[in-house]
Amino acid sequence: MIPAEPVTGLILSGGGARAAYQVGVLAAIAELLPDEAQNPFQVIVGTSAGAINAVSLASGAMHFKTAIERLTAFWQAVRSHQVMRSDWWGVIAQARRFLGHSLLGLGARLPVALIDSSPLRELLEAQFQASGIEQAIAEHQLRAVAVTAFGYESGQAVTFYQGRGTIDAWLRHRRIGVPTVLSVEHLMASSAIPLLFAPVKIGPQYFGDGAVRQSAPISPALHLGANRVLVIGVSGNPRGPAAVEPVARSYTGLQPTLAQIGGHLLNSTFIDSLESDIELLQRLNGFSHLLPDDVPAHSLGAAPVEVLVISPSQPIDEIAARHRQELPRALRLFLRGPGATKTSGASVLSYLLFESGYCNELIELGRQDALAQRDELSRFLGLARG
């Protein structure tokens, strides 16, 4: 049997400001590629802030290295006030609306969240170039790009994808694929972190962050035709033998702060499902190799999928804690009460710290982590060793 032609997918998970790490990994890939190299990822899938990176990369797929440079400059220049209201009046007004509407039932029935993310729309409108996606697909430099959002009424993880006409929509348990022309609305919806950012209406229902109930984050790339995937995670959890070694811990015995609780909830939303999906895929790969030669793995839905994972080698929470003073004063005061500005609550901060020092450190960490896997990346991308 002739093996299927390799179709390489890129998975960019969610995580607010943590997505700056992904840009560093992509910058390292650009360094490894020849100067005139074409886009190595025929399928690009993103969720939450990863969706912003995915669409930006896809819109520049005709000139891959230039797209990476533009995306890097974007994250190096981003500031909190470009993503959310961080001035005193904006923070206080949003807090008042949240308390009045969501807790006391006062005022108009509008989607209200703890943070006003309206500046993000203007930022994305300046960054988003829809025509680039159409051209890349037409020129066969891209098979498909997709972003995932969560429908609050349907309870489904909806993957909105733009790609070649030969790609069929799909329907699985709480997971569907919908062909469309991607827009800023899809990016706003996919990056609407629950409770922090307001949901966005697309069609008949409101959508929020795609990481919510996304039980199989890798599956959209496989539905879109990928049979090998590069996953850039943002967890900072060690992988390999070190991940199962016992770690000595000291406990304070204090009650958890609201930020600590919120941080664990965010991590379970953005990180745990991706790591579980990777583990499941690796088990299925192992199972496929045990099948008899006369039983084709694809007939059982167990065709092997090569997976390469790059994730932070350092705890992102600790990096965020070092940069907490970069947060604008109004936001810092607003987050201090729940404990997000303390080291124990820095997980929440790591999602919201859209400031240069923090983002640049994540970019450099991503670059170094990718270069540390230079040989694996080169093999995966089919590059000759220099």
From TrEMBL:
Active site: 48, 209
Motif (GXSXG): 46-50
Motif (DGA/G): 209-211
Entries under Gene3D superfamilies matching the protein: Cytosolic phospholipase A2 catalytic domain
GO terms classed as biological process: lipid catabolic process
Pfam families: Patatin (PF01734)
Keywords: Hydrolase, Lipid degradation, Lipid metabolism
InterPro entries on file: Acyl_Trfase/lysoPLipase (IPR016035), NTE (IPR050301), PNPLA_dom (IPR002641)
GO molecular-function terms, A-Z: hydrolase activity
Keyword Ribosomal protein tagged: no
Domain PNPLA, chain residue ranges per copy: 10-222
The keyword Lipid metabolism is assigned to this record: yes
Protein name in the entry: Patatin-like phospholipase family protein
Species this protein is from: Pseudomonas corrugata
Taxonomic classification: Bacteria, Pseudomonadati, Pseudomonadota, Gammaproteobacteria, Pseudomonadales
